[in-house]
Amino acid sequence: MTGNRPLTRTGLYDPIHEHDSCGVGFVADIKGRKSRGIIVDALEILRNLEHRGACGCDALTGDGAGILIQIPQDFMSRVADECRIALPPAGEYGTGIVFFPTEAADRDLCLKTFERIIREEGQTLLGWRETPTNSGCIGHVARRVEPLMRQVFIGRGDCPKTDDWAFERKLYVIRKRVENEIRGSNIRQANYFYLPSLSSRTIVYKGLLLADQVCRYYPDLAAEDMVSALALVHQRYSTNTFPTWDLAHPFRFLAHNGEINTLRGNINWMHARETLLDSPCSERT
Q1: Tens digits of per-residue pLDDT, 79-88?
Q2: CA pair distance 226, 74, nearest whole angstrom
């Protein structure tokens, strides 16, 4: 009910979905025109989804929130130049924010592992950038487990120039190899390491944040040359998994609202279906 008025079906809104938990929003220019306005509107939607999220005893620590956008070439070229990184044209490099351990020894091992796997997969490390963050806007609980943020730039190597998806698949393989190797290591802060995204097309900014903290925590999102033709936002309401930096949405291609079965059930279903996940691209990647 809104006041004394019953909720009624209007446009895309249907009151039967009011039981859902997490909040998801999507904005796009149907003609594919990139603009600052798309990101501004998406962040406004995210703030309006605050009621779909939650916080704990620390009112400034949320269950997680974030945004997925297209890679803004002018912005990336500018910040890469500031770091003395020679960035190739759009599509010829991949990038992503990386969550690293806060302990120097663990972080150094993660960096070396990442850089070695990039070389082993025939790609080129262009450089690292310190991702600007504002820890002052988040709660003490989120700050206590806050990872150190870095942005990686990877140049296209031996992937066919005629197949853009070949490079995307290679970035996927790099990400999975790095994540699996570090997860299986004896690094004390291995759980701090995570890649929200690694792509030549899109980038994800997310964390253990409230909806209105996303833009404040990541100053990148306030830059005038931060543009996109689409934006996917998510405000998390944790159900069967505890709030953490890595479990914040959106993920690399999607976001969901509401509980999807149980975590253990989904893990078991995926184990049962592993033999069906073969791909004709696996031999070429």
Answers
A1: 999 999 999 9
A2: 8
Q: Is 55 part of the annotated catalytic residue set?
A: no
Q: Which residues contact 49 (CB under 8 A, 6 or more apart)?
A: 23, 24, 25, 211, 233, 235
* Residue 78 predicted with pLDDT over 80: yes
Of the chain, the end-to-end C-alpha distance in Å amounts to: 53
Q: Could you check whether the bond before residue 147 is cis, i.e. omega within 30 degrees of 0? A: no
- Report d(CA 85, CA 77) in Å as an integer: 9
Percent composition of the chain: helix, strand, coil (DSSP 3-state, to 5): 35, 20, 45
Q: How far is the C-alpha of 30 from the C-alpha of 143, rounded, in Å?
A: 39
Rounded to an integer, what distance in angstroms lies between the CA atom of residue 263 and that of residue 240? 6
Exposure letters 51-72 (e unless 16+ CB within 10 A, then b): ebbbbeeeebbbbbbbbbbbbb
Identify the three-state secondary structure at position 199.
Answer: strand
| Residue appearing with tokens 């490099």 | 93
Residue type, 266: N
**DSSP alpha helices (H): ranges in 21-63?**
36-48
Distance CA 243, CA 92 (A): 35
Which is catalytic among the residues 22, 110, 159, 215?
A: 22
Could you tell me the pTM of the whole model? 0.83
Residues 214-225: pLDDT tens digits?
999 999 999 999
Residues 6+ apart with CB under 8 A from 26: 42, 230, 231, 232, 233
Q: Does the pLDDT of residue 129 top 90, yes or no?
A: yes
